[in-house]
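Q: My labmate handed me this sequence with no annotations at all. I'd like to see what the chain might look like in three dimensions before we decide whether it's worth expressing. Could you predict it?
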Amino acid sequence: MATTKNKAAEATDYSMEEKINALYELQQIDSKIDEINKIKGELPLEVQDLEDEIAGLRIRIENIGVEIEELNSLTRQRKREADEAIALITKYDEQQKNVRNNREFDALAKEIEYQKLEIEHANKRLKEYAATIKVKKTAVEEAEAVVADRTLDLEQKRTELAGIEQETAKETEVLTAQAAEAAAKIDERMLTAYRRIRSNMRNGLAVVTVKRDACGGCYNRIPPQRQVDIRQNKKIIVCEYCGRVLVADPTTTDRDA
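A: Here is what I predict for the chain of 257 residues:
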């Protein structure tokens, strides 16, 4: 908070003309930084997209792994149930040999039949689990192949981006320092408005000059009296058509204008 107040206090030490000139200078510097960023093209976004895709695929692989483990656990459980049913059938077969009447024999026969159904049911489930596990393992292999492919693309793009950043690092550092120096001359409210306008413009131009009696951003005609006001640098004047801040062209004399 104290730093912000100090910057605001420093900005008030400059005249409106100096602030407007600093604003125009800041725009020129930011435009140069934009040109450097254009060299990177879509690489930063492509790198981010690839990182997100790889992260998503790895989460998917991990989730499928959990599902496969759950199916393996169910497989082991069904096998135990089938083994228990087989053991019970063997037990009931032995008991049938020592029954005292038909009622006991029939009761054991029903138990044997029930355990056979349990075995049949378990075997059916085991086949379903095996088929599902096979499908999921195939999905994991396919996802891992995509991850490997995307990882190669990512490393290539990272290398390319790192090369560009290394080549432009010094220039970017100088421009960033210059931008900070220019911004220090501008009060916070004006700086915030500049950044807001800039973010709304496709080409990043928030401050433009008047050339040939027209706005340098939207090329609409600027009335003569308004041009006089702009050259006086007594207040911020924006284009009524596009909302950009208008400044006098520093390369043009009053006679030329």
